[in-house]
UniProtKB/TrEMBL annotation, chains A, B:
This is Threonine/serine dehydratase. Belongs to the serine/threonine dehydratase family. It holds the Pfam family PALP. It comes from Pigmentiphaga aceris. Keywords: Lyase, Pyridoxal phosphate.
Length: 339, 339
């Protein structure tokens, strides 16, 4: 783990399999046609509550409601004409489904999306509304990667993985690039950046951009308490697994084990991984509603949850929290607000 | 009413009592230190639903959760040192209270706020949290302007009216200036801009900026169905009054009659005024939550409600909808989502 202020040489990133800053800048230029440069928001009340300066990178305002649009856009824009003709297949807990189907629609590419049967209905319906063919699977019994591979074999469709892919991680890294660039414009260096972690593509990509451009900034992952595979894997030095009985309201942050490509990157670039409980996440969703006026889904609120619950010392620090997604069912959100 | 594409001479604005573009640009420069240049957001789904290109000026992301911060900021920043010492008094249904108290706190000025006893609790508590002294009055019995005048007489505090004030209207006008400038950056001219109307400071200010900088753009007010005093006043040519029994979920949009300063401005600069029912507003709040990921209060959602309910032909048009505020109680919002 690297949480010091040491400048990192370009070679370091390629050695660990991380996207280079050149690749990230190229991705940012590529996706600019379709993706939103999301704003950094700030609330005086949240600053007072926490004692820090907390800036929010509002990826809930991204196309298709999450940062996932960036990776999918970066991948699909680099398909060959033949690949575009054959279409794409993606497996996803939801946001990657929405993102891939949204990009596919924009580019006129046929998309097949494999989603867990218990995904939020706003995510399943959204993918269908984008014109994708949705195949539901049982999260506890079926192997989504095998289903995807079979579809790809039969149709020639290109698989668009949710995180273990350099195109995808490079796309997600543009979140980090935008953070550093926006802060540089106002002569601010963040002490900390917090990103949600499931497969690790977002936090790994963000760390690749941030550590290259702003070596004094520490990047932390944030995970749901029962899906803290990265925290345990960083501690043990090898990929650990979550219990098959693990539960969380963060539907977007449920993987079994760290990604093959993303884990070495996160191992070398992150300052650590924090974890938060469901109650802490609900509290963060209410605070984001009240003080930021944003609909943040559970998995998108873990960074704010970590700050509010004091999982990190933010006093007098500048902390950027990525609000990574806002695709949450209205009835679930209503229950959180009522609680 | 002027809904043609005629360029308007600068003298025209001063004749009707509207802020000049020079005053608006000066206000924009003045408040930049504290106010957010809010983003213009777009949803492919909402575009498809409506057949137009609908851009959302997200004033819910403004400091203190509504456009009202702009006017209050423009006013308080121009207080003399003696006036700052004496403090300010404001009467408000809520958003102007939050805004004035937030600016007062930033500038170290004492604020007394007179609010209706039935204002949303998030607005009353927010003003208190900002350090203001809050005085509650009965919307149906008491005269808030008289209460304010008495406090001002006793303490020497400067009254900060919610709309009938050139400083305030000029501050609100910066919303319109930002819209035109952001669109000019991407070579787009809006066909229509929609702004909520209560006292008329927002829509009058916005029209002053938009009609000066973009004469081909029509500006419409949007009002709650039972508080459509502006629509009726525009039709009759004189200030009409709302029924004392009028009801609306739009707590922010309940005035008795158009403002003395704002009505002549709106009479000359607006293309008209549309009105929407409570059910149309609830539907708009749900759409904004689902597709924009924003918490929009009832009064902030009337423009979107008008578009979704087909109150205006938006097919193949570029329409800017100002989402003017997001200060809504969680329990009320939960009920709307559940409905």
């Amino acid at each position: 783990m690297s949480n010091t202020h040491t400048p990192l040489a370009p070679a370091f990133f390629s050695e660990v399999g991380a996207p280079s800053i050149t690749q990230i800048e190229a991705a940012a230029a590529r996706i600019r046609e379709h993706a939103v440069v999301t704003p950094l928001l700030e609330s005086a009340v949240i600053n007072e509550l926490t004692g820090g300066r907390i800036l929010f990178k509002a990826e809930v305002l991204q196309v298709a409601g999450s940062f996932k649009f960036r990776g999918a856009c970066n991948r699909l824009m680099q398909l060959s004409p033949e690949q575009k003709q054959a279409g794409v297949v993606a497996f996803s807990s939801g946001n990657h489904a929405l993102a891939t189907s949204a990009v596919a629609k924009l580019l006129g590419v046929k998309a097949t999306i494999i989603m867990p049967a218990d995904a939020p209905k706003t995510k399943v319906e959204g993918a269908r509304d984008n014109g994708a063919t949705v195949i539901l699977y049982d999260r506890h019994k079926d192997d989504r990667e095998a289903i995807g591979a079979e579809i790809s074999r039969q149709s020639g469709a290109v698989t668009v993985p949710p995180y273990d892919d350099l195109y995808i991680m490079t796309g997600q890294a543009t979140v980090g690039l935008e953070i550093v660039e926006a802060l540089a414009d106002v002569d601010v260096v963040a002490d900390v950046v917090l990103a949600a972690c499931s497969g690790g593509g977002l936090v790994g990509g963000v760390a690749s951009a941030v550590r290259a451009k702003s070596p004094a900034t520490a990047v932390y992952a944030v995970e749901p308490a029962e899906f803290d595979e990265l925290a345990r894997s960083l501690a043990s030095g090898k990929p650990e697994r979550n219990s098959p009985d693990a539960k969380s309201i963060c539907d977007a942050l449920q993987v079994v084990t760290p990604g093959k490509l993303t884990f070495p990157v996160n191992q070398r670039l992150l300052a650590g991984s924090l974890s938060v409980t469901d109650d802490e996440v609900r509290d963060a969703m209410r605070v984001a509603f009240k003080h930021l006026k944003l609909a943040v889904e559970p998995g998108g609120a873990v960074g704010l949850a970590a700050v509010l619950a004091g999982k990190l010392d933010v006093k007098d620090k500048t902390v950027v929290v990525i609000l990574s997604g806002g695709n949450v069912d209205g009835d679930f959100f209503a229950k959180v607000l009522g609680g």
